[in-house]
Amino acid sequence: MRMNRRTNMQRLMLVVIAVALRLPLTGAQDAPNGPVLAKLSDASFWTFEKFRGEGTMRVIQSGRGDVIEVSADGIEGMAASVRSHAFPVEPNRQYVITMDLKTDGLEAIDANLTGGVYMQFWDAQNMQGSYQPADAVSTPAPENSEWHIVSQKVTVPSTARTAELRLVFAAFGPYTDKLRPRDSGRAKGRLWIRSVHIEASDRVTPLPSTIRVSDPKIQAAIDIVAECMHNGSLNGIFVDSDGYTDSSNIVPDISFGLYGVRRQGQAKYLDILRKQWEDLGASATADGRLPQRVMSQILFPIGVDEIFSFTGDRAFLAKTLPMADRTLDYVNKRADSNGLVRLVDHGKWVIGEGADWVDWYPTRMEGKTFNFHQWYVHALRRMAALHEEFSNTPDGRSFASAERAREYRKRADQVEQALRQLYWADDHFVTNVDYDGKVANQRWMDDQMWAIRFGIATPEQAGKIWAWVDRRPQELEGVPTAWAAFDGPEHGTKSWFGRTGAGDILARYRSGNPARGLALLKRISEVFARDRNVYEAYKMDGSVVPGTLGWGNYTEHCGGFIMALIGGPFGLDFDSDHDAVATFAPQFPREWTSAQAEVYVRGTRIKVEYARTGAKATVTLSGEAGAEQPIRVVLPRGGTQLVRIGASGKRTFDLSEP
């Protein structure tokens, strides 16, 4: 049975005190070879938790020590596990969990894990963290087996401080009304567990960030984000966050994670995401519908472009470009005379699966939302650029379509014009022109910020938006950036940084206001550095929003932070065109004395090095490895020039003030 509220509070206080004073917890202690677990018969250390269905647990005495017997004989089966008391763990340490297991008719009903074990982590703020192994890499036990050893290796995230062990009868099932997949999986039959041990194994070092800046606050945040990206990929795939260890949703969580990974120099992470993108593309239906949220239809093609811009792998592009075309075809076929699309009809939405990435508010869950369409324009233009480039290549290895490129360009221009005209309301873009056939005239901040970043907003429109935003700095940008600039939405006054704040920072730099962009970058850096983690949501005073389910190591916000940093002060844009595969328009702040970044441009590793002494400032692009790539360089006072950077190539540019 589950612990009551008082027992939960007592346990919570013990954990907090133990972590703060570095004391051992009841039933476990720090040891050279790992935590020591209490006997399985110790009811003060082990708790049986039943989540669905009916069944029993009992402890049997044997010559080999205590044995846990769990059984569920009914046709409904049972979702259940035996949970340990919390015990300290060492960050970035691997532990090997072993136990003896025997089964009799153990049959999974909707569980992906039976007769196994996983570890649930808690962070330094005693907020619940991720678990390992995740649903995606779990396997069921044999249906009938004699005693055998089960072994599971887990890696402690850098943010974790304590953990609980879960000895699983059945887990990792579907979402239910009240249960997450971790707890919901059911099985029937019987299993026995004995001789449970944990031993410390190797230490794991997170991949360091490839970005360095002289600002200590921003650098602290960069390092924390690097660790969080490491933590988000410990199961061999990128997951949304600690709270969503069971999800690799690309709308927008993993997409933003990709945007961040793409703007760093860690090829290992890109390889993981490349595999996730290939698998998702292969899962599309014959007409191009992807089995994720609606907005995946356009974020998938954008991801294809982002991955190719990093790797330059033509084989990957030749394989995935047709997949991206099919996902866009699914959208294009449903367009009206203005090019606008309704993929969710009135009243047909469910929480978590709306028309764009606001998956909890009615006006953005159906109809023709502004946000979906501005990213649709971006997707169309990126696919058009790839089709133009690879429809007639000099080496004759063409695999794209010039006709598709023209169609995509035409559709993008049509939708952009509709957004500027049909959605504009004096000083803001409305969020939906087809909410049950009516206009939803609401000021959502992400609508406005990304419209400026993508150039959907004209300069005049952008100026009108900034006018009212700048009158409400603490209310809307206390922590960049509030979701809504109107009363009503439950989360409207909160920041979901990747979706809102990253767009705000990039929009500021595009609008010629780098000082404000830098101030917002510093503010979010302070918050990340304070917590030594990246949480799902923040209030405008910087405090963590309680009660959200995403918790820490939030992949979307980590990616959004790197996206804002590299696209803002570093001024790197990886959208290719007829002349260049990337554009470098640096806007380094005068207060920085140095900055470095390593990035990949179509397989070529390039190092960016900035240095300032007084009024003298220079930036150097150095090719570390790979073929020459055409890079457009836009200097504040030096005009625009096209340079080619490859292995051993180097160009230095003067950024000194007159």
From TrEMBL:
Q: Hey, what's the signal peptide range on this chain? A: 1-28
Among the GO biological process terms of this entry, one is: carbohydrate metabolic process
Alpha-L-rhamnosidase six-hairpin glycosidase domain segment(s): 210-461
Query: One matching Pfam family, short form?
Result: Bac_rhamnosid6H
Which residue intervals define the domain Glycoside hydrolase family 65 C-terminal in the entry?
577-632
Q: Which Gene3D superfamilies match?
A: 1.50.10.10, Galactose-binding domain-like, Maltose phosphorylase, domain 3
PANTHER family on file: ALPHA-L-RHAMNOSIDASE C-TERMINAL DOMAIN-CONTAINING PROTEIN (PTHR34987:SF4), C, PUTATIVE (AFU_ORTHOLOGUE AFUA_3G02880)-RELATED (PTHR34987)
Q: What is this protein called?
A: Uncharacterized protein
Question: Where does this protein come from, organism-wise?
Answer: Candidatus Sulfotelmatobacter kueseliae
